[in-house]
Amino acid sequence: MRSTAPRNNKLKPSSNLIMNGSVRVRVIRTLLAIQNGQSLASVLDPLLNSLHDGDKGFAHALLLTTLRQWYALERLLDSLADNSIDEKEVRTTIQVGLTQLLYLQVADHAAIHETVEAAKEIEFAHATGLINAILRKVAKNPSKFRKKCDKKHSLPNWLAYQLKQDWSEQYDDLMQGLRQPAPMFLRVNTAVTSVEDYQQALAEFEVEADLVELTSGLQLEKSSDTAASNSILTKGLRLHQSTAVNALPQFAEGAASVQDMHAQLAAPLIHKALLNKLSVENDDADVDTDTNNNEIRILDACAAPGGKLAHWLELISSNESPLFHVKQDNAETSPVISKVKLTAIDNEAPRIERIHTNLQRLNLSQHDLQQAEKNIELNIVCADATTWQGAGKKKSKLVFDAILLDSPCTATGVIRRHPDISILRTEEDVEQTALLQADILHNLWPQLKVGGYLLYVTCSILKQENVEQMQDFMTHYNNVVAIEFSDDCNWGIEQAIGRQCLPIDSESGDGFYYALLQKTAE
Question: pLDDT tens digit string along 76-129?
C-alpha cells in the first residue's frame, strides 16, 4: 500500500546519489540520502545495481539492518561518545560499523578496518580515530552492547509514545516486532492453479512454504440464498526464506504474486460484501437492480501498485464467481448481472504504469479480459481521489455498488519492510495524513449507492488514521452503518469499528486496518 504522507520539510531530497567506492561507502551514502529525504524504494535499486552480484547480499543486509536498528544504534552511540557527535556523516559511518559488529557477525578486524577506511573515502578522515575507538570498545564485548541495544525500542520517540498510547497491552511485543524482517507471502492466482498445487510446485523448485489460512466473518444482511455464506477463507503461502521472484515457478506467467498475507484480506472482504448486496437486492422484489442493463459499477480508489485490484479482478473473473452465473427466474434464465464496470484511480502517472505492468503479467489487462470473453470493463484513471467524480457530468452522483479505499497513510504498519519510514515520518505527518484521508472519504461516500459498501483499508497501526478516523467519519453522516466482523475471525484485534492487525511476530502479516461501511437510506 502506498503512503502519501508528506515528507519532513526539513529534509531536502537529492537525486545526486554517488554510487562508487567500497560496499560500505555506498551503503553509507545511501543512508545519508535517506536522511536527506529520499525513500528506500528510490535508492535501493541504484545501490544494488551498482554492485557485483557477490556484494549485493551483504549490502542489502547491511543497509536494511542498519535502518531497522537505527534509533537504537543512535542511542547506543550517544552513550559511547564522550562528546556529542554532530556530523551525520560520522554518526552514520559509526552506525554502519556497529551493525556489522552487533547484528551481522562480521569479523572484528574486517568491520573496524573497512569502516575506518570508508570514513576516509567519504572525506571524513579527521574522525577515523573516534570511529576506531568506539568500534573497538564495542568489539571487546559485543553481546553486552547488543543486549543494551535490543532492550528498548528502535523508533523515534514521538512514534513510540503514540504506539504506547494506542497499544499499551501489545506495546513491548510490537516494539520488538517492528525491528524484525517481515516474512514473504505469496498470493496464488487460483484461475491458474490451486494454492496447494502451487505449494507443491514451490517444493519441486526447493522453495519451502507454509500454507496460511485466514478466516473472516462478516455480519451482513441475510438473503434467502442459503448457499451464500458470510464466512470467507483466504489462503496464502508464507515462504521460509525470502526468494527472488525469478526463482518462483510460473511467476512471469501470472501464477502467483508477492503480497502480504494481511493485504490479501482486502479483495475477498469487499467482494463478499458486493455479492451480498446483489443477493439481497435480487431477493427483494421491490428493489430495481436493473437500472442500467443489470450492470454493476465498482471502484478501487488509490489503486497503485495494483495488488488488491488484481486480486479483486481474479475473484470477479474466476469461472467459479457467482457474478455471471445464470439464475432461474420464472422458468427463464438470466445472468445475475450482465456486466461489471471496474474503475481504478490513482493520482500519479508512474504508479498508473505499475498497475498496467502488474495486470499484464497476471493476464488481467482489459485486452486479456476481452480475449477471455469476460464481461468486465476495466478503466484505469489518473485522478485525485479527493476531488474525482465517477459520474462525470451526469446528474446522479450515486455511481458505485462497492468501493475499495486503500487509503493513503503513514505506513507505520509496514515499517518491517520499509524501515526508512521511521526516519522519514514526522509527528506532523500523522495529522496531515488523517486530514487527507477524511477528504477522500467525504468525496467518495456521496458516490456510493444506497445499500453499497465501502471497505476502508490502511497499512497504519496508528488509531488516528484508523478506528478514530472511522468514528469521526460516522459522526458526519446519518446514512452509514459499520458492519461488524463476527467471532470466527482468526486475525486482527477487534476495534470499536473494524479490526486491526499488528506486526508482532516473525510469522505474521503487516499492520493493516480494515473497516467495512454500508450506506443506508437517508
Answer: 999 999 999 999 999 999 999 999 999 999 999 999 999 999 999 999 999 999
Dmax (CA) of the chain: 90
Q: Using the 8-state DSSP alphabet, how is residue 409 labeled?
A: -
**Catalytic site includes residue 382:** no
User: What are the tens digits of pLDDT across the range 239-262?
Assistant: 999 999 999 999 999 999 999 999
What burial class does residue 477 get, using C-beta atoms within 10 Å of its C-beta: 0-12 exposed, 13-18 middle, 19+ buried?
middle
Question: To 5 degrees, how large is the angle CA 183–CA 189–CA 195?
Answer: 65
This prediction has a pTM of 0.92
Total count of residues recorded for the chain: 522
Catalytic residue of the set 149, 302, 409, 459: 459
What's the CA gap between 178 and 67, in Å, rounded? Answer: 11
Tell me the one-letter amino acid at 413: G
User: Which pairs with CB-CB distance under 8 Å and at least 24 residues apart come from 474-477?
Assistant: 474/517, 476/442, 477/445
* Grid cell listed for 103: 547484528
End-to-end CA distance of the chain: 33
Q: Answer whether 90's CB lies under 8 Å from 124's CB.
A: yes
Amino acid at residue number 160: A
**Which among 476, 519, 473 has a CA at the least distance from the CA of 496?**
473
What DSSP assignment string belongs to 354-392?
Answer: HHHHHHHHTT-SHHHHHHTT--EEEEEEE--TTT--TTT
Peptide bond just before 249 cis, omega within 30 deg = no
- Strand 513-519 to 499-500 pairing: antiparallel
